Amino acid sequence: MPQMIFVNLPVADLDRARAFYEAIGFTTEPKFTNDRAACMVLSETIYVMLLTHDFWAGFTDRRRVDARTEAQVLLCISRDDRGAVDAITAAAVRAGGTADPCPVQDHGFMYGRSFADPDGHIWEPMWMSAEAVEQGPAEMSHAG
Length: 144
Hints:
The protein has five helices and ten strands. By secondary structure, it is α+β, with helices and mostly antiparallel strands. The strands form two sheets. Strands 5, 6, 7, 8, 9 and 10 form a six-stranded mixed beta sheet that branches.
C-alpha cells in the first residue's frame, strides 16, 4: 500500500467546507464522513479531513488558530499545467474562496498561485516543467 497523507483542517461550517472542496475537484469518501467530519479525496494518496471545531479539539490540546488571520501551513499541490493552476484557483473563487492571498509565482519553468478556502486555509496549486523537475535545484536557482 502506498504511503498516504491525511491533512486535517478545522472548519467552522462542515457543509460549507465540504461543498467548497467538492466544487474544486475533491470527492467525498462516505465511509469516513459524518456530522463531525468529512473525508475529501484529492488523489489515491492525498486526503483532507474536514473537522468541526469541537471534533478538532479532541485531537490536540494546542490552541486552534484562525486561518483567516494566521498561517501555520501552506498546502502546495501539483497541477498538470499552468491552465490547471488557474482553473482550480478560479473554481475556488466561484465556490466562495479567495484568490491569491500569497503572491503569484511565475518563473517560466514554474508557475504557482494560491487560494484560501472559506475558513482561510491556504492552498498553493503549482506547475513545474518536466525539465525543471529533472534538473533539480540548479534550475530552481534562477527563481526570483
